[in-house]
Amino acid sequence: MTSTLGIAVIGAGRMGADHVRRIGRTVGGARVVAVADPDGDRAKEAVAGLDGVSAHSDAVAAVAAPGVDAVLVASPGPAHEEALLHALARELPVLCEKPLTPDPAGALRVLEAERRLGRRLVQVGFMRRFDAEYERLKELLDGGGIGRPLFLHCRHRNAASPSFFTSDMLISDSVVHEVDAARWLLGQEITAVTVLSPTPSAAAPEGLGDPRFVLLETSGGAIVDVEIFVNCGFGYQVQCEAVGESGSARIGDAQAMVVQSAGRWGGEIAQDFLTRFADAYDRQVRRWVAAAARGRIDGPDVWDGYAAAVVSEAGITAARSGVRTPVELVERPALYR
Amino acid sequence: MTSTLGIAVIGAGRMGADHVRRIGRTVGGARVVAVADPDGDRAKEAVAGLDGVSAHSDAVAAVAAPGVDAVLVASPGPAHEEALLHALARELPVLCEKPLTPDPAGALRVLEAERRLGRRLVQVGFMRRFDAEYERLKELLDGGGIGRPLFLHCRHRNAASPSFFTSDMLISDSVVHEVDAARWLLGQEITAVTVLSPTPSAAAPEGLGDPRFVLLETSGGAIVDVEIFVNCGFGYQVQCEAVGESGSARIGDAQAMVVQSAGRWGGEIAQDFLTRFADAYDRQVRRWVAAAARGRIDGPDVWDGYAAAVVSEAGITAARSGVRTPVELVERPALYR
Amino acid sequence: MTSTLGIAVIGAGRMGADHVRRIGRTVGGARVVAVADPDGDRAKEAVAGLDGVSAHSDAVAAVAAPGVDAVLVASPGPAHEEALLHALARELPVLCEKPLTPDPAGALRVLEAERRLGRRLVQVGFMRRFDAEYERLKELLDGGGIGRPLFLHCRHRNAASPSFFTSDMLISDSVVHEVDAARWLLGQEITAVTVLSPTPSAAAPEGLGDPRFVLLETSGGAIVDVEIFVNCGFGYQVQCEAVGESGSARIGDAQAMVVQSAGRWGGEIAQDFLTRFADAYDRQVRRWVAAAARGRIDGPDVWDGYAAAVVSEAGITAARSGVRTPVELVERPALYR
Amino acid sequence: MTSTLGIAVIGAGRMGADHVRRIGRTVGGARVVAVADPDGDRAKEAVAGLDGVSAHSDAVAAVAAPGVDAVLVASPGPAHEEALLHALARELPVLCEKPLTPDPAGALRVLEAERRLGRRLVQVGFMRRFDAEYERLKELLDGGGIGRPLFLHCRHRNAASPSFFTSDMLISDSVVHEVDAARWLLGQEITAVTVLSPTPSAAAPEGLGDPRFVLLETSGGAIVDVEIFVNCGFGYQVQCEAVGESGSARIGDAQAMVVQSAGRWGGEIAQDFLTRFADAYDRQVRRWVAAAARGRIDGPDVWDGYAAAVVSEAGITAARSGVRTPVELVERPALYR
């Protein structure tokens, strides 16, 4: 690579600031040239100490800033569509944090814009696809190492949920990661969702239906079950056991250091997703930078973002109604086959 | 203990013969005095080399044989009711292999007979309650070590199913163990059953709906999910993860010896339930013998056998219909509270 | 088996009383008929509630009591030789708790008595040979599963040492188990011992050289290293990793139940050798009873007891001197080949 | 960071080329500006496709090239001293792959040069200090989590040794990593070395004394034992168990994905140190770049390189003689305290 990719980062909150630091520290061949946040002070703070980076309160201005070769969207979901359409208008490669858009309708508009352009330029930030353990599991499944997959048993646990978390967000913000991971691992679409709601944990804030048990059926006749529990108390944990016709494989046990002390053996549990998936975030951005420099993407695309939005919506309906809810997708455009 | 408990073993098939050997070898304070099997030759074979044991082709005769202080029923399920009623008529303590009876109606008749007697004399052979790992899990849950239980995630796998196995038997013969274990671990009744059926494994015999995913709801608002897969190919495996409000606990990983060789680390998986639960069978019979010598039982009772039969029946209905099926029990008699 | 083996138990301390209970509860085909302890009250206490068992203050009387078919020696080491010689004089099968005798000279006298008799009647209670994990490791090594063994890395840890424990006993009471296990696993003799002494742990009682690191060289060119640490604080732990020319195998991790709670995953560590090796003790006695009924032994013999005594003595010398100490055995009699 | 650190890479073999790629891909704030290799073609190959990087056949020329702010030495050990002295003459920060120099005498000359300069500019590439698992172990030990350390039990295994490997290199190339890790983890110096040599594995090339068991004694009264086995056949494996006065901690088990199939459970073993320590290499260079930009080092220094050279030399002597060999260091200069 003979030149450096100039990146505009849209959104300077927790994720955006993290990406600015990441690009400065662990990504060769790229540098941040513009940062935008409606809170202009936050944008300035994120670029403090960095040379030659402009701060903006407007995403459109940042995308149009001089030297911008690619765009990283880390703003809140409702702001995604506008930033994506601007970047596509300029034919810039994009890495967009999930969700692509909060609802299927918006996702379809982005999909349509890209389809008209005739090139896939937007990558969605489902970073689990870049986690070393998920990659090994995918490789095993694709290689037929355990036969045709029959089940994915998934656990998704957070120590505690933030104050603004709602019952719907258990599906749209948390389980959406399993939705994408399942679609990717299996190479199948989700066809129906059922949600079981046990008596909520005493640790859950008033009114939050936590935990839940989400069942996804797939186009290939497999079953995906997800325990989502965002106030489990003991840490952040993502596990997945794939069961195939001739074997099973489990990731996420994370037994790095085993300590024996005071009558017990064991180890620590990570407390935070940025810790658990630190390497995945790094690898995602490095691979996206390498692809963007060639005008391509290297990861989940707009179709993946759209499908996730549809399944999320069906999941929220299923959780509210308590009954099995079918998932219906538009026909898949040729661009995404 | 100052004398030896004389036991009549009803049924000399695989389980019955195993019990005869067990009592001779690993159970102090007891000895087999009579063995019955409709196939008289099989009964004789089971007692060959044993001194002072009579062989019978009729269960009633064996129960009535001289020196019989207690009865161990290991005949096929449809033969249980008659043997149990005879033993109760003689007020003999009984250990009855599961199922208590094949259907709820028979179980209610046994329950009624015992209720009239006014004493609990029949113990049902749900031997998992005597497994060291299950005992530790029970102790942890009862002690509040992980808070109120929210989920039990269960795996129940066999390397291959016998030729006579049917789709119904996945529920009534296999999942029935999880039904009892869940009721015991949680101290709650099952209130509804849902069964999901993925596309059957290519390894399953024609017509067998294997694997299945069984969801049990409980009176305490917990969810129990069971992957039942009787042709998984790689071995016999029973795992259970309990998830509570403040932690989780998993049993069944069985990592006894770790071998590293040829680019891999790992170990063997048991191939057989008699291997996996050998100690549980031993402990069950030893504790039953000790209790029987005092005219008592020390394990699951007729109510447990009845409840398991009702849930099994509902599970079979749920599997056939594909919809959630409620479980309805008669009122629990005072004797079983 | 058509009759019941009558057993005299010599010694009614912790181990002896444990064996009395074991035979009553978990061993079919045998019963205790006599118990001896110099403290007659302790002998009486051990037989309380048992029918037809005589209590003695004299081992000789117990061995000669009516109905004695076999002898189980669980008295302190210095009392073993007398009991063994009496039992051999009566040609009774013996199970003798380790050590066979406290010193090589006594062991040679027992060996000579047995050699004159021309039959092996004495089995030494190295119960690890009956532990399921050790048995699997032995089977793996014998089957060539990891090639010719090069190393055994051993850990032997106690939560705390009893008040009477001495630095010599780290070798003669604790490491002696690894000495026998290594000889058995490898099928080789120990040829030299070196002992390294790190600065003692602050948790060790004044004057106790705890922990130590013991290096055994074998006749087959393998190295056995043993960390012996009898005040490790966190529990009782016996681990062994065998490293062969093409692989390694480790036992003793004992991860029965994995609990996640309060930011940690892990499990409990057994606190006591009677807990850790409960099944091994049971199996040892059951197999010895079955063999004794046929006038045989089924386990380590007097030669094994003698070799362990010689290595122990060399180990104590090595620990005191700090230098490598060769091990010299008498020629192995034909009876023990 | 407002400018980019220009790096000269000395040596374009496997390690050097790997570092050139690493800096281009995963290190922000730095770029390679010059590469030197006596084989000029190899230097040119390493810089192919990179813009503005000069290729040299002479290390001195590369160090003196325009834009060089720091030097990364990845040439063979005998070439290190010259490159280091040139870099020091120019007061450039250096990251030098281990060994600092092949012998203590050369290390002392570098130490003297740096001492005269009065600043620590040379960092030695013991990359294990940057491995996440080692870092957690170090943190645990420093925090007193398992009390004062008594033992480090180390395993260091390679699938197979390269053709040029010698018995001395088992110590100087392989165990030297444990020497540095032990000194760092314990914060103590090594005071003596003993080496035991089992009968070599049949898998070892003719004449290679593989495996060996190396015992290090430390200034704080701890014992470090290292199994070094460079033809173990099954993979690359680095494990370390620290045993303290109140607990133990083990790293290196690496159980990322657990697969069950064909009667076995388990996972893969890494085959290669660049795979096992990929993240450690990345993190080492990133942290060195950040430090070098401020004229500092952030890792093992010249004293660490010197001490490792002295222990290596003693270890080779100990392996040849078979006897315990003391380690003697010069007085530690104030600069390194």
Automatic annotation (TrEMBL), chains A, B, C, D:
Regions crossing the membrane: none
EC number: 1.1.1.18
Signal peptide: none
Keywords, comma-separated and alphabetical: NAD, Oxidoreductase
Catalytic reaction(s) noted: myo-inositol + NAD(+) = scyllo-inosose + NADH + H(+)
Residue ranges of domain Gfo/Idh/MocA-like oxidoreductase C-terminal in the record: 138-329
InterPro entries the record matches: Gfo-Idh-MocA_inositol_DH (IPR050424), Gfo/Idh/MocA-like_OxRdtase_C (IPR004104), Gfo/Idh/MocA-like_OxRdtase_N (IPR000683), MI/DCI_dehydrogenase (IPR023794), NAD(P)-bd_dom_sf (IPR036291)
Alphabetized SUPFAM superfamilies for the sequence: Glyceraldehyde-3-phosphate dehydrogenase-like, C-terminal domain, NAD(P)-binding Rossmann-fold domains
Domain Gfo/Idh/MocA-like oxidoreductase N-terminal: 6-126
Function as written in the Swiss-Prot or TrEMBL entry: Involved in the oxidation of myo-inositol (MI) to 2-keto-myo-inositol (2KMI or 2-inosose).
Stated family: Belongs to the Gfo/Idh/MocA family.
Subunit structure: Homotetramer.
HAMAP family hit by this protein: IolG (MF_01671)
This protein's name: Inositol 2-dehydrogenase
Species annotation: Streptomyces cirratus
Native organism taxonomy: Bacteria, Bacillati, Actinomycetota, Actinomycetes, Kitasatosporales
